[in-house]
Design a protein that fits this description.
Blueprint: E1 4-5, H1 9-22, H2 26-33, H3 37-44, E2 49-50, H4 51-60, H5 65-68, H6 73-78, E3 112-118, H7 122-126, H8 131-143, E4 149-155, E5 158-163, H9 166-177, E6 183-184, E7 187-196, H10 200-213, H11 295-304, H12 466-474
Length: 495
């Protein structure tokens, strides 16, 4: 049984109704459930969420989790006593043959099993009620043995596990390896494995490890995979989905985990020394004192999982820390001291940076889309090429910052201080600059066609053509000396 649950289509509809009745925000629900807003978003889109968190979210919405989750037969057993109308998704639906019923328990004690991997679309198989019965009857006919049965069908691409007499399964393996049986139901056979004298968990590992070691698991769906206590050092798992995977005691030293989804993964006792964790999701993952991980990434884990250790952002003094390429999506860094921090290419989308000190912070190429920077102090910060799409920068102090090539599309910059800032070639499409102070700013290459500029102050701004100045004035912008335009210097940014 995996570590995650996901909401069914019907469950999502029920949850959305309950959420509307509750009248809270997703941020409120995340705080009450002890998880991140990103996890709540995954809950409402039917993606895997750690079981305990899934159940807590349901409790907060006054819902029975068994009625919301998409359950398989094993999870359904664990939810007994919970009223549920949601039936588990099955491969073959209902059948009168008890040997091929979709709810037949998996045999963890079977001494020998055969796993065949087919090239095909698992969703088409799931949507074909007769597939399992058809394949079972076909194989029984080929082998002349009515005791051969399908234990389960799962992703990767399509894996079918057969149980039966050892000699019969060995004959089936020989047929495939000899080339006499090359496809099933029109789907080519990719591979075949005979499993003996192993536990169910070990069998899964035997199937997965060759793919990972040969680099085939890159960007692979490994949700809920049991990879505990195995050696994955130097493996390439970049962009793979390891949501809620069991990685306890796993050796991931020197592994490439860049942009890998480790959301809710169990990393207790894992060795992540020298692993590439650039852009990796560590939200709601489990890390303890036995986890070997670089202090930089342990700090990132602490920032994105404050509920795990009752820590508030006010305690964060991260000045001059190297957090390049860190995944800090949804992080609460309000009031944090981020002076001189290297956050270049970091993911800060949806992050709360209100009132944060960002003086001389390196945010080049960072993703700050929909981030909150209300009343932030990014004086002299380097935001060159940063993504600030839909960001809220109202009243932020961006004076003398490098904002060249930054994307401010739809950003809210009401009353922000942009004095002396370098906005060369910045994208201000549909941005709201009302009340902004742009005195002395470099505006070369900026297109203000769709920008709100009412009461924006452009005193001594550079890089504007006479035609652009005339257009801005006609739309409410202010040029020329202003009594409120005082001298400003980087050494006294809040004068």
């Amino acid at each position: 049984m995996g570590r995650s649950l996901r909401a069914s289509k019907t469950g999502i509809e029920k949850a959305e109704k309950a959420f509307k009745l509750k009248g809270c925000t997703q941020d409120d629900l995340a705080e009450a459930s002890g998880c991140t807003p990103h996890t709540v978003s995954k809950f409402f889109t039917g993606r895997p969420v750690e079981k305990q968190i899934f159940q807590t979210i349901c409790d907060e919405l006054n819902l029975e989790w068994g009625e919301i989750a998409e359950l398989d037969s094993e999870d359904e057993e664990s939810s007994r006593g919970v009223k549920t109308n949601t039936k588990p998704e099955t491969i073959c639906g209902t059948t009168n043959n008890p040997r091929i019923n979709a709810t037949t328990p998996q045999s963890a004690n079977t001494e020998i099993q055969l796993v065949i991997r087919l090239t095909g679309n698992i969703e088409k198989v799931r949507n074909n009620p007769g597939f399992k019965a058809t394949v079972t009857n076909l194989i029984q006919a080929v082998l002349g043995d009515a005791n051969v049965n399908i234990e389960k069908i799962e992703k990767g691409s399509i894996k079918i596990t057969f149980s039966g007499e050892p000699e019969t399964l060995k004959r089936l393996e020989a047929l495939i390896k000899s080339g006499k049986l090359t496809e099933i139901e029109g789907m080519p056979i990719e591979d075949v494995h005979l499993l003996t004298n192993t536990t169910t968990e070990d069998k899964h590992k035997i199937l997965l490890l060759p793919e990972i070691i040969t680099q085939e698991a890159k960007a692979k769906d490994l949700i809920d995979a049991d990879l505990s206590n195995v050696d994955l050092s130097d493996a390439n798992l970049s962009n793979a989905d390891l949501t809620c995977a069991d990685l306890r005691g796993t050796n991931l030293s020197n592994a490439n985990l860049s942009r890998t989804n480790l959301n809710c993964a169990d990393l207790r006792g894992a060795n992540l020394s020298n692993a590439n964790l650039k852009g990796t999701y560590l939200h709601d993952s489990l890390i303890d004192e036995t986890t070997i991980i670089n202090e930089k990434w342990r700090l990132v884990w602490r920032i994105v999982n404050p509920a795990f250790h009752n820590e508030n952002s006010e305690k964060y003094n991260l000045s001059f820390t190297d957090l390049r390429s860190a995944n800090l999506r949804d992080a609460n860094l309000s009031d944090a001291d981020l002076r001189g921090v290297n956050l270049s290419n970091a993911d800060l989308s949806f992050a709360n940076l209100s009132r944060a000190y960002l003086n001389f912070t390196d945010l080049r190429g960072a993703n700050l889309s929909r981030a909150y920077l209300i009343d932030a102090y990014p004086v002299c910060a380097n935001l060159s090429g940063a993504n600030l799409y839909f960001a809220d920068l109202s009243s932020a102090d961006l004076s003398y910052s490098n904002l060249s090539d930054a994307d401010f599309s739809y950003a809210n910059l009401n009353f922000a201080d942009l004095r002396g800032a370098n906005l060369r070639d910045a994208n201000l499409n549909f941005a709201d600059l009302s009340g902004v102070n742009l005195s002395g700013a470099n505006l070369s290459g900026v297109n203000f066609m769709e920008t709100i500029v009412e009461n924006a102050l452009f005193t001594s701004s550079r890089g504007l053509t006479p035609q652009t100045i005339a257009d801005l004035k006609s739309r409410g912008a202010i040029f020329g000396d202003s009594p409120g335009d005082r001298e400003f210097s980087p050494s006294n940014p809040h004068d």
